[in-house]
């Protein structure tokens, strides 16, 4: 999916988010979410090497049978790789680079990032259940979302946001071995000093097939695409 198409979807989400709230508190949340969407529209375009990532994805698919794989990109820090699952614990999966001994990992809960390791400053943990429930059910609503990091004194600090989850357009996800219809789900999140917009492409069965998720103020967003 091109950056332009992502941005068009964000604009649609702005109008949806501003029209779906009734209470004064929710109106303020929707207004702030709309500002976050506007900021996303004018953000600089990431410069990555999609051809190199595509080659790595094709190689990983060719050399594995049914192993779960995702392509991941960090546009802010210009990092990209193909990941495989190295550990599963209930709904949680821990992913590491395919074909290397890289010790960096990303943990997800049914597709939403909950932790990173050796990707400083690491996301130590995240409460994603409320956003996850709405996104995977492809429902609109308001959710609380919390992320925790280590500060300079090695103490855990929490960044808690209120998110307005809205529906976008139907899309066809075509990447790797995946060819499935999906629905855009936007999560526009605001707090006292932070605004960001996450985007999920969710299949009819509730599986998150593609996503653009906020990881942290240094790492920025992660773009994840399932390969099979």
Rg estimate, integer Å: 17 Å
Reported for the largest beta sheet, the result is: 12 strands, antiparallel
Please, how many helices?
4
User: Tally of extended strands?
Assistant: 12
Shape field? globular
In whole angstroms, the N-to-C terminal distance is 16 Å
Mean pLDDT, as a whole number?
Answer: 82
Q: How many discrete structural domains? A: 1
Mind sketching the topology for me?
Layout lengths: L2 H17 L4 H18 L8 H14 L5 E6 L4 E11 L2 E6 L7 E5 L2 E6 L5 E5 L1 H9 L3 E10 L5 E20 L2 E13 L4 E9 L4 E9 L3 E7 L2
Antiparallel strand pairs: 1-2, 1-12, 2-3, 3-4, 4-5, 6-7, 7-8, 8-9, 9-10, 10-11, 11-12
Question: How does this structure look, described?
Answer:
This protein has 228 residues and is of the alpha+beta class. It has one domain: YmcC-like (YmcC-like fold), CATH 2.40.360. The protein has helices at 3-19, 24-41, 50-63, 129-137; strands at residues 69-74, 79-89, 92-97, 105-109, 112-117, 123-127, 141-150, 156-175, 178-190, 195-203, 208-216, 220-226. Strands 5-4-3-2-1-12-11-10-9-8-7-6 form a twelve-stranded antiparallel beta sheet. Strand 7 (141-150) and strand 8 form a beta hairpin. The longest helix has 18 residues, at 24-41. The two termini are 16 Å apart. Residues 1-25 and 41-48 have low confidence and may be disordered.
């Amino acid at each position: 999916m091109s950056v332009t198409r992502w941005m068009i979807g964000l604009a649609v989400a702005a109008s949806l988010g501003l029209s779906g709230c009734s209470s004064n508190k929710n109106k303020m949340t929707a207004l702030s979410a709309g500002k976050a969407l506007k900021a996303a529209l004018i953000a600089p375009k990431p410069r990555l090497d999609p051809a190199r990532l595509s080659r790595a994805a094709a190689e990983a698919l060719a050399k594995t049978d049914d192993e779960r794989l995702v392509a991941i990109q960090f546009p802010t820090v210009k990092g990209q790789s193909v990941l495989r699952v190295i550990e599963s614990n209930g709904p949680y999966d821990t992913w590491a680079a395919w074909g290397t001994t890289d010790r960096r990992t990303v943990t997800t809960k049914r597709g939403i990032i909950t932790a990173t390791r050796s990707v400083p400053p690491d996301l130590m943990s995240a409460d994603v259940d409320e956003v996850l429930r709405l996104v995977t059910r492809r429902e609109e609503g308001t959710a609380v979302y919390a992320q925790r990091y280590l500060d300079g004194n090695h103490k855990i600090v929490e960044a808690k946001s209120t998110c307005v989850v809205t529906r976008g357009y139907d899309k066809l996800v075509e990447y790797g071995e995946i060819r499935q219809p999906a629905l855009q789900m936007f999560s526009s999140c605001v707090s006292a000093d932070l605004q960001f917009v996450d985007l999920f492409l969710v299949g009819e069965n509730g599986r998150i097939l593609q996503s653009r998720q906020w990881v942290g103020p240094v790492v920025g967003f992660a773009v994840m695409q399932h390969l099979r």
